[in-house]
Amino acid sequence: MQWLFVLIVFVVAYYLIISGKFNRSTVAFAAGIIILLSKVIPNFDMKELGYLVDFNTISILIGMMIVVGTLRTTGFFEFVAVHVVRVSKGNVRVLLIFFMVTIALFSAFLDNVTTILLFAPIIFLVADALEVSPRMFLLGGVLSANIGGTATLIGDPPNILIGSASGFGFMDFLRIDGPITLIALLITVIYLDRKVFKDYRSMGDKLKRLASMDPNKAIVSKSALYKSLAVFFGIIAGFLLHGLIGVEPSLVALAGAAAAMILNGKSFSSLSEDIEWDTIFFFMGLFVLAFALKEVGITSFISGLLGTLSGNKLVLFLTLYWLSALMGGFIGAVPAVTFMIPIIQGMTSNYGVPSEIWWVISISACLGGSFSIAGAAANMVGVGLIEKHSKESLTYGDFLRFSMPVTIMTLVAGTAYILFRFSL
Questions:
Q1: Alpha-carbon torsion 391, 286, 184, 167, what sign?
Q2: Principal place where this protein is found (predicted)?
Q3: What CA–CA distances, in Å, run from 56 to 253, 278, 420?
Q4: Would you tell me the crossing angle of helices 377-390 and 277-295 to the nearest 10 degrees?
Q5: Concatenated DSSP letters for 270-329?
Q6: What's the Cα-to-Cα distance from 259 to each of 34, 151, 228, 294, rounded to whole Å?
Q7: Residue 290 near residue 332, CB atoms below 8 Å
Q8: Residue 8: how many CB atoms within 10 A of its CB?
Q9: DSSP characters for 142-192?
Q10: Distance (Å, rounded) from C-alpha 63 to C-alpha 69?
């Protein structure tokens, strides 16, 4: 009956998160602790916590938050904001579309959390100049980051996991996932431009003050700026070349954080506010829940059920596609893919399912991750940043109402793409 206990904890935790009655990070973390205290994970010892919690993801988050924090103190984001507004010539519509496309492009070559951390301060400055809440602008950026990250091996953590399990490389992801990424981005930009951003088109005059600023005066210290940028680009190079140099991206991010603090004379206490601790502990709780679901046999049960569909490729692919999308959206793309990998490995080795099935869960989990706050790290980080900056609460339901229509559209487009791409 251990599986029933884990399932009850999981359902109750997600109900409390969705209801918005309690802090989502507290609920997820508490649920994880309950799982550990219940001993449903046999012979668990705290020394083995690294097997449950993906500290690679946690380390990347903390490292990049620190590096972005050092950049923030130099005035870099104000400098960029002024230049971006000038390039758009005060046209809010052009500005917002530019943000979305650029964020998607960056997210393909950085992880989507890093991209959101980079662009959020710029978006906040623009929203403040327009005298509006940054909510819609940054949420649009979050959706773009999730879509852009779908295109490459390094763009989204689920793809990193899938690449490791399947053996597919960078160019394989770009070749297969790249086309649907462009289609999904186009759908998202058109939808948000017509349905969400239309109310802001007439506010261009409010950007004049920001555009009239001297961008060079925003820089607090050129020396600190150059040091922070050198560290940042060093981290990007490390992310791109980590396979060649044999260093994990998480260690690259932490090394960059250490270098940024040493070069700029910063301490952890001075940058502690730049770390989204709620997001960190939310992730830790989710990882424990996902591991428990696997440990009590729910994974093998689902694998057996899906194995009965192996004789019908069309039904199997579509079932896995929407199952992965919904799981990615509501329990998180990383936990969902972690959960699905042993299922896929069992099906390809025991039931003769073709390796194309990996692309099904890659596309569906990455796109489906935009469904809810829990779907992707970028969602949680983005919501945390909005709440911290604007002092407004953004509930699970608020996010769902914003993201669901366009996420369903992109998932339907993904379904059509898979049917065409794999001749189903």
A1: positive
A2: membrane
A3: 10, 17, 35
A4: 150
A5: HHGGGS-HHHHHHHHHHHHHHHHHHHTTHHHHHHHHHHTTTT-HHHHHHHHHHHHHHHHH
A6: 37, 30, 9, 38
A7: yes
A8: 10
A9: HHHHHHHHTTSTTTSHHHHHHHHHH---HHHHHHHHHHHHHHHHHHHHHHH
A10: 10
The rounded distance, in Å, linking the Cα atoms of 161 and 55 is: 13
Residue of 223, 227, 216, 225 whose CA lies nearest to 83: 216
CB of 116 closer than 8 Å to CB of 378: yes
Reading the block at residue 242, the tokens are 């980590």
- Half-sphere exposure in the Cβ direction for 105 (13 Å, CA): 6
pTM of the full structure: 0.78
d(CA 381, CA 117): 8
Q: How many CB atoms lie within 10 A of CB 302?
A: 17
| Dihedral sign from CA coordinates of 70, 72, 76, 77 | positive
Element (H, E) at 19: helix 2-19
Distance in angstroms (rounded) separating the CA atoms of residues 154 and 160: 6
pLDDT by 10-residue block (mean), the chain, 424 residues = 86 80 85 89 77 79 83 80 76 85 85 81 85 90 95 83 81 92 97 85 71 74 88 84 80 90 84 78 84 79 73 86 91 80 80 85 95 87 87 86 96 96 78
User: How far is the C-alpha of 52 from the C-alpha of 285, rounded, in Å?
Assistant: 10
Token pair, residue 35, equals 């799982």
The C-alpha angle with vertex 94 and arms to 123 and 408, in degrees rounded to 5, equals 75
- For the chain, the structural domain boundaries read 2-52+75-219+276-421
Contacts of 413-420 with C-beta under 8 Å, sequence gap 24+, read 413/180, 413/183, 413/184, 413/187, 414/180, 414/184, 414/321, 414/363, 414/364, 414/367, 415/318, 415/321, 415/322, 417/179, 417/180, 417/183, 417/363, 418/317, 418/321, 418/359, 418/360, 418/363
DSSP for residue 353: -
Picking from 14, 63, 5, the residue whose alpha carbon sits closest to that of residue 335 is 14
**What amino acid is encoded at 364 in this protein?**
S
- Whether the Cβ atoms of residue 363 and residue 177 lie closer than 8 Å to each other: yes
Residue at 147: amino acid letter:
I
CB-facing half-sphere around the CA of 408: CA atoms within 13 A: 5
